[in-house]
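Retro notes, item 3 of 5
We never archived the inputs for the nicotinamide-adenine-dinucleotide complex last cycle. Fixing that now. Sequence and ligand:
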Amino acid sequence: MKVAVPKETRSGELRVALVPLGVTALVKSGLQVTVEAGAGAASGASDDDYRAAGATVVSSAAEALAGAGIVLRVNPPSLADPDEVSGIERGAILVSFLSPLTNPELVRRLADGGITGISMELVPRITRAQSMDALSSQATVAGYKAVLLAAGHLPKLLPMFTTAAGTIRPAKALVLGAGVAGLQAIATARRLGAIVEAFDVRPAVKEQVESLGAKFLEAEADVTAEGEGGYAKELSEEQHKKELELIAGAVVDTDIVITTAQIPGRDAPLLITEEMVRSMRPGSVIVDLASESGGNCEVTKHGETVVSHGVQVIGPINLPASIPVHASQMYSKNITTLLAEFVGKEGEVALEFENDVIGPSTVTHGGEVTNERVRDALGS
Ligand code: NAD
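Structure as it came back at the time:
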């Protein structure tokens, strides 16, 4: 069975779906891997590295896709270039981030093209599937990079310095939303010497926050909202008001705020109002990791850095791509572990929809949209 790894085409994307180490693993399990020339260049893997790992390198995406039974990507095929979907053979399996709940047109095209779409976003977050969880691996990178971005924009040092030229007080960071990205942001800010506070509506994370050396903000009222599968759910209006009061009290003397709060299937909750931004010290920095789903801060603009009341508010696009070597390495590991769920020892493919990872993450198969959540989202 041929596995194709086309070069990513999304603007600014530097990651690749499979690194040479992943090629070695797949070749060992009886698959033939074909990589488009240059696919790994931005993530530190040359065509020669791929060849040395046992892959064939071809000069175009069309050549890579021809005859491939499995296609590996990071980003969904672009609809702007019809060849990205139509180049995939009928009956092939596409494994990629697919944004299936918000990208109905792509889902339809995959179904019409007889392509089996496996969505990395829908890999269930069960203990057994942790090593296949690309949302987590990429959020880890984003959380880390968010702090570096903030530190780079802050007109201050982060750690405490005791020098002959005087003592510098450590910077203060606040992390809102202590999921995968938030916990990594806390750890990174602590490593850089900042004093860190954090808040999340899931009370279970308090212990994790404290174990990283940060202070968990305690609300006087009940501001907890635990949803299904370890995710948060939306707060009531009254609880949301209480949360805003808690955050308003914390941001006034904070230098860096990293916001990561998300609720699956909904717009990101508003946690920082413009009024709160105004209350912050000029020069402070907010990095809003929820900017793609509307932002946690009222003044965030996705893809831009705005200065509001002297505060720099950053709404970054695709942060994992800014650390492509390790983001690709982790994504590649997620994908090769996922492939082991349906590729046998001799390279034979057997998709079993009763499988607790493959079933929920398969979006299209045999010309149909197979995933109930996606069907509901598409209204069909
Ligand atoms: P996410 O990106 O959906 O949300 C980020 C964080 O925002 C979450 O911690 C959430 O509780 C928080 N949040 C939502 N609304 C908020 C609000 N109003 N105020 C403050 N915080 C708010 O979540 P994620 O990081 O992808 O994962 C969240 C959780 O999912 C994990 O911590 C874990 O419990 C579970 N998970 C399980 C596994 C696994 O077992 N394999 C893997 C990854 C994640």
